[in-house]
DNA sequence: GCATGTGAATAGGTTCACAGCC
DNA sequence: GGCTGTGAACCTATTCACATGC
């Protein structure tokens, strides 16, 4: 496969593909291109997605449920090993094979089950507190659905998903266009 | 409010705030700073979020449900005026005040209800087809949850939300760090 | 001959620093 | 005196183009 083909596939340019890859090493052969399967495995290792990751879900609301049942997570190696919620009526009930835990036992469960990633699907007002506790408990990364900027140490990556901002980005582009 | 304060609030720098704002006009007063309420309204107009937008949801699965019930959407002016699904057993049933429509009547309903934005919460294999039909029907923007790059004309903005990629971004950063 | 990998050129975006206005 | 708005300096990222190696 040539960088040209990869670029068409990924909606980018051949030069971009080559520069990006060259940042991490030399994966192709001159005059030939890239061996797709080989490249794929190299990139999987590079990205750290050649293994499974232990994830905890905080917030057993509708967004939490949608995420928990999202088949692509499990199939891509993200294993949900704990679910937390603050609502006493939910605690102890089960989703699939996971029983919902109280936030009171958060640190304990996180450490016991070696959770590496936390998904925050909770309201903005409790997100910072849970994030801080997660970092303190040794979590390595946070996927944050709450509409606030979390304050965590720089060595803990945070990815924000803000659905309102996505819609607003569309509104902006449409408004500009006219 | 000074650019310094705004920067602290938005986790950026004062210079960045001033440059970004200057791109769209002159909103502050030298020596004084910005009048917060006034700035807020100017930006709301600029972003096109000073009015409500008519949205259609395609895909009445768990992600669709989570989005439909997400209070922030309605409160920020995004009104869901139609829901579509391909599953015959769902068609005709209602979520709140919206009854679920068949994809067969997609164009008809989109035009009749003046839908401006479409949220695609459907599997990758049908996303491109629905996106093309949405554009053809006159939709102005697409929020895409399907894990594919949609091919639409450049005048129709698309925002992608790919939850697996968000987790993979965390995996990458954590892997790099060690 | 062909396509990569990479310096050089270019474009885009951020930071600096200060003139100008309140 | 204080803070904006903005040109200049700087830095990062993309594109170009070609020497290099298959």
List keywords for this structure.
seven-stranded mixed beta sheet, Rossmann fold, 178 residues, 8 helices, DNA-binding
Report the portion of residues of chain A in β strands: 15-25%
Biggest sheet details of chain A: 7 strands, mixed
Shape designation of chain A: globular
Quaternary state reads: homodimer
Low-confidence stretches of chain A: none
CATH homologous superfamily classification of the largest domain in chain A: NAD(P)-binding Rossmann-like Domain
CATH topology label of the largest domain in chain A:
Rossmann fold
The CATH first-level class of the largest domain in chain A comes to Alpha Beta
**Shape-level CATH architecture of the largest domain in chain A:** 3-Layer(aba) Sandwich
| Number of self-contained structural domains of chain A | 2
List the secondary-structure elements of chain A in sequence, H or E. Answer: HHHEHHEEEHEHEEH
Beta strands of chain A, count: 7
The side-by-side strand order for the widest beta sheet of chain A comes to 3-4-2-1-5-6-7
| Portion in helices of chain A | 40-55%
Structural class of chain A comes to alpha/beta
Mean pLDDT of chain A: 97
Which chains make the largest contact?
A-B, 45 and 45 residues
Helix segment count of chain A?
8
Model description:
Two copies of one chain form a homodimer. Chain A has 178 residues and is α/β, with parallel strands linked by helices. Chain A has two domains: 3-47, no CATH class; 53-164, 3-Layer(aba) Sandwich (Rossmann fold), CATH 3.40.50.720. Chain A is built from eight helices and seven strands, in the order H-H-H-E-H-H-E-E-E-H-E-H-E-E-H. In chain A, helix 1 crosses helix 2. The mean pLDDT of chain A is 97. The A-B interface holds A 10-11, 46-49, 53, 55, 62-63, 65-67, 69-70, 72-73, 76, 78, 116-117, 140-143, 147, 149, 155, 157, 159, 161, 163-164, 166-177 and B 10-11, 46-49, 53, 55, 62-63, 65-67, 69-70, 72-73, 76, 78, 116-117, 140-143, 147, 149, 155, 157, 159, 161, 163-164, 166-177. The structure holds a DNA duplex (22 and 22 nucleotides).
